[in-house]
Specification:
The termini are far apart. The chain has three domains: 111 residues, no CATH class; 218 residues, no CATH class; 138 residues. About 2% of the residues have low confidence. 67% of the residues lie in helices and 0% in strands. It is an all-alpha fold.
Length: 584
């Protein structure tokens, strides 16, 4: 028999059931083949007396015996599968599992027989503890391993971290790739950005759902995934692993898997923070709750800070904390209150600090909250508030009737201390960058151009990180008309973007994304010099080359013909702006 046929009968001999090999042998050694076939059919057919007289009817209708036996077999298999599932739910626990174990013992030798395999797999699926010996046999056979249910695989994985790692690894790679694709997406919008999807929507993503299913209620597997995420975060410093850590826990929370949620010490903290992320704001009530969790970390349990810091390092958490901080600072300006007098603001800074310190804490294994620098609260934040005041003062001045001395210019210098803070203090840098995003979203060109020079050198190049550049390019679409002005373009491109393009491929990509979106607004002379400056080098990656080619094609299509240029110079006037919903 061919190997395929051998598999069809795998294991029958062990049970004393005749198979194709036996029939072949009988026919080879007999003198009357037809009698031998009839005897084989009688011995191995369906042993129902009433059936014997009915079978000739099928012969009259030209129905082959194979078809009849196949349909009986399929029907019986369905009934057996239903019965197995029913046994798994009835009677006392020990009894039902005893029945299933006996059934597995009898049927396991047929596990490689394709027609019987589903039954054996179904029995194993319903057993909370498949005998070790059987698990080893399944694990050793690629096809069997592939065919078995996730319930059985969990039992294999929990004692084989390397095998589980092989299954999880491609999913984690896919997750990071999906995040990066969103950050580099060609759709630039202030309304739909990286942070737009709600936490609940994000948790429906394919990777989170697959991991949730793979873990089931198994605490051991959950711990393994968390260990993978910690290790990868340490190895790569990629903060998207922190997002996945929170999303996975909340996905299990959605399914009410108490077996895991009750043993993860971060559960309630993450749940509360998740509600803040949904609202993109930390309100007073939730702030108290979060503070309660942080203050409640007992002596000897400090290790939980490592996990909490990873939850707070999730970019969605940082985004929420930073936006809340900017909002608080504006409120304080209106209340004539200093940052040091606001407990809510101090709590936001404490959580930002814990999140930003996650990598160092997990790396050093020293679990204590990072010390807050006093000057951040006494000097840096009041400086940001003074920028808000500058804007108010300028706006009021503009409205006053002008006297002899003429209009008061907008302050153009920035305190040296501001630049120094952005270079040396991580939290100050994060808040400073969010303040710049805030003024850009308000279309405050003056404030934007004033603070932009401070971004060329920032703490660990945060101003050139993908998340910041993704948000900045989105917000800059609101200042679209300014791109027609030479001065604005020189400050933005020559003064900021191009300082890093050659050494940072990601910056090169973000500038090209922005120009793909706004090229028609940029002054033609400037556009030409930018096209030259942004030309990919031999070292450039495929993504940069692809974007550059797209831009070149767009510019070719956009070029007015020489005749048009000479006749109607007015064509170069900036296009009328369409108000975006954000500005209403």
């Amino acid at each position: 028999a061919a190997p395929g046929q051998a598999a069809m009968y795998a294991g029958l001999q062990e049970l004393g059931v005749a198979n194709g090999e036996d029939l072949k042998e009988t026919l080879t050694n007999c003198t009357e083949p037809l009698k031998a076939i009839e005897q084989f059919q009688t011995e191995n057919g369906v042993l129902l007396p009433s059936l014997q007289s009915a079978l000739p009817f099928l012969d009259l209708h030209g129905t082959p015996r194979l078809e009849f036996h196949q349909s009986v077999f399929d029907e019986l298999r369905e009934k057996l599968l239903e019965r197995v599932s029913a046994i798994a739910l009835e009677g006392k626990v020990e009894e039902r599992y005893k029945k299933l174990e006996d059934l597995l013992e009898k049927s396991f030798s047929l596990v490689k027989m394709p027609s019987i395999q589903p039954v054996v797999m179904c029995v194993m699926k319903h057993l909370p503890k498949v005998p070790e010996k059987k698990l080893k046999l399944v694990m050793a056979d690629k096809d069997l391993y592939k065919a078995c249910a996730v319930e059985v695989k969990r039992q294999i994985w929990q004692d084989n971290q390397a095998l589980f790692g092989d299954e999880v690894s491609p999913l984690l790679k896919q997750y990071i790739l999906e995040k990066e694709n969103i950050l580099f997406s060609n759709d630039i919008s202030v309304l739909h950005n990286f942070f737009s999807p709600s936490p609940k929507t994000r948790r429906q993503g394919e990777v989170v759902q697959k991991l949730t299913q793979m873990i089931g209620k198994n605490v051991k597997l959950y711990d393994m995934v968390l260990q993978f995420l910690r290790t990868l975060f340490l190895r790569t410093r990629n903060v998207h692993y922190c997002t996945l850590r929170a999303e996975l826990l909340m996905s299990l929370h959605d399914l009410e898997i108490s077996e895991i949620c009750t043993v993860d010490p971060c559960h309630k903290f993450t749940w509360c923070l998740d509600a803040c992320i949904r609202e993109k704001f930390v309100d007073n009530k939730r702030a108290r709750e979060l503070q309660g969790f942080l203050d409640g970390v007992k002596k000897g349990q400090e290790q939980v800070l490592g996990d909490l810091s990873m939850i707070l390092c999730d970019p969605f958490a940082i985004n929420t904390l930073a936006l809340s901080t900017i909002r608080h600072l504006q409120d304080l300006v209106g209340q004539d209150t200093l940052p040091r007098e606001s407990p809510d603001l101090l709590l936001l800074l404490r959580m930002l600090s814990l999140g930003q310190g996650a990598w160092d804490m997990i790396d050093s294994q020293v679990f204590k909250e990072p010390k807050m620098e006093v000057e951040l609260i006494t000097k840096f934040l009041p400086m940001l508030m003074s920028f808000v005041v500058d804007d108010h003062t300028f706006n009021v001045d503009q409205k006053l009737p002008s006297e002899e001395k003429g209009p008061i210019p907008y302050p153009s210098t920035i305190p040296e201390a501001f630049t120094k803070f952005l270079q040396e203090n991580r939290i100050a840098c994060e808040i400073g960058l969010y303040y710049i995003l805030h003024i850009t979203k308000q279309r405050n060109k003056n404030a934007f151009l004033r603070l932009l020079p401070a971004l060329v050198e920032t703490f660990s190049d945060l101003a050139f990180s993908d998340i910041f550049l993704h948000l900045l390019t989105g917000n800059l679409t609101l200042l679209g008309d300014e791109f027609a002005l030479e001065e604005f373009c020189t400050s933005l491109f020559d003064g900021f973007f191009l300082t890093a393009c050659s050494r940072k491929e990601n910056v090169h990509r973000h500038v090209l994304r922005l120009l793909l979106h706004l090229h028609h607004k940029v002054a033609p002379a400037k556009l030409e010099s930018l096209q030259k400056a942004l030309e990919p080098t031999k070292q450039s990656g495929e993504a940069v080359k692809e974007l550059y080619n797209q831009l070149t094609e767009k510019l070719e299509l956009h070029k007015p013909s020489p005749a048009e240029v000479t006749e109607t110079p007015s064509m170069e006037l900036p296009l009328p702006t369409v108000p975006t919903p954000a500005s209403r």
